[in-house]
Amino acid sequence: MTVATETDVLIVGGGPAGALLGTLLARRGIDVLVVERQTSFDREFRGETLAAPSVVALRRLGFGPALDAHGFLETEAVTMRMEGRDVLHVDYRRFPIGTLPIDIPQPSLIGIFHEAALDLPSFAYASGTAFSELIIEDGTVLGAVLKEPDGTRAEVRARLVVGADGRFSKVRRAAGLEADVKPMARDFLSFKLPRPAGWKQEAELIADGERHIMVLPTFPDLLRIGHNLPKRGLTDLRRAGFESFRDGIAALDPRLAPLLREHLTSWDDTSFLEIFTAELDRWTRDGLVLIGDASHTCTPILGQGVNVALQDAVVLTPVIAAALAESQGPVRERQLAGFVETRRTHKRFVTKFQRMQEAALAMDSPAERVRRRIRYWLLDKLPVKYRLFDRVINAQHEIDPLDLDLARTAEATAGRRVAAAQARG
Ligand SMILES: Cc1cc2nc3c(=O)[nH]c(=O)nc-3n(C[C@H](O)[C@H](O)[C@H](O)COP(=O)(O)OP(=O)(O)OC[C@H]3O[C@@H](n4cnc5c(N)ncnc54)[C@H](O)[C@@H]3O)c2cc1C
């Protein structure tokens, strides 16, 4: 067995939520083991947009230099076009937050968190290691059984198990925490294309009737395209043929036609995403907490999934530190209650807005389309437009959880790493 048999915190899943939480806990000197079933940080299509409040938070946590060294793409605005008419434009540069949303590939972001933790003595990472089951005694979670890369069964005891294993969380199921899964009306097919020189750094939503695409400039020189399709409509789409799919996209956005012809050559270049939301009444048990998509699955609409996952990690870090310091045994459900309450409020707000947006996009009768266009056009003309969108897009900074203590920890850690590197010559 290669993983430790005991740790303070066992995190299942090294996605954005688990990777950031592992790093923040290790910075505080807390023993943490992150287990990830994949052997690399590579992901299929995943959320790559960090909203401005997340960028601010990550900079305050000391990740700014690593983000700058890697590079990213700043998105300056969002435009909505419906049935060939521009109906809404929001310039992100006008928001008081003073920072733009950025696009950075998810593997790079996870790599940045991981890199920051590697030298920390209380941090351990087990790749290719999968969660199998929970160790539960008298109703309290005391650890987990894992399957190591060579198939060995390993038991790890922990004072807290964190389920950060995503939208199909096995930890959630093992803990008996029921999720209310609600499918959205449509699913998504995504793909990437090279970004032509001079393309605006704007997110665009282009809708025609019930069909729409999102065109998102992304790092380093790509466009990310998301195309909606009716629920379980993939079979029909495939039956109609690849050419017809490509032509449909080109009809929605003729600028893409030459790129599609040259660079989108088969279904293998696309990635399917089933869209649903999952909500849970309970995110915790004695000895266990769920975060990120495991506790509350967002849809990709408005690109909030990564952001809420990161916020979970940031808010939970001081809560775990306080709970571990308060007593000796497993972390109790009551010690996590404040975390759940804060995060649930935020996630509900995000879901409500995503559902409203999805409902507007799913309208398909001619009368509904006209009403939709008028509604967005009126929204565009509203004198309080920027105040309203600031509330929706940058809402996270209203529940900014970063305490100065955390920022100081980040600075101190960064200082120690520099001193250690200098000592090593
Ligand atoms: C195809 C797709 C497209 C998306 N597009 C967007 C977007 O455009 N914008 C946006 O904001 N959000 C998007 N999302 C959502 C976003 O990616 C997620 O909300 C975000 O990644 C959640 O982070 P997380 O850490 O909670 O979970 P995840 O990123 O899902 O990470 C969970 C991790 O747990 C690991 N794991 C799972 N099971 C086990 C196990 N048994 N043992 C060990 N490890 C395990 C997985 O390998 C994974 O690394 C998309 C999601 C998908 C699937």
Describe this protein's structure.
This protein has 2 domains: about 5-180 and about 275-425, FAD/NAD(P)-binding domain (3-Layer(bba) Sandwich), CATH 3.50.50.60; about 185-275, D-Amino Acid Oxidase, Chain A, domain 2, CATH 3.30.9. The protein is built from 13 helices and 21 strands. It has helices at about 15-25, 50-60, 65-70, 105-115, 170-175, 235-240, 240-250, 255-265, 305-325, 335-360, 365-380, 385-395, 405-425, and strands at about 5-10, 30-35, 50, 75, 75-80, 85-90, 100-105, 125, 130-135, 140-145, 155-165, 180-185, 185-195, 200-210, 210-220, 220-230, 270-275, 275-280, 285, 290, 295. The two termini are about 35 Å apart. Flavin-adenine dinucleotide binds near residues 14, 38, 294 and 304.
Q: Can you tell me the residue ranges where pLDDT is under 50 for at least 5 consecutive residues?
A: 397-408
Q: What would the CATH topology of the largest domain be?
A: FAD/NAD(P)-binding domain
CATH architecture of the largest domain: 3-Layer(bba) Sandwich
Number of helices: 13
| Strand residue percentage | 25-35%
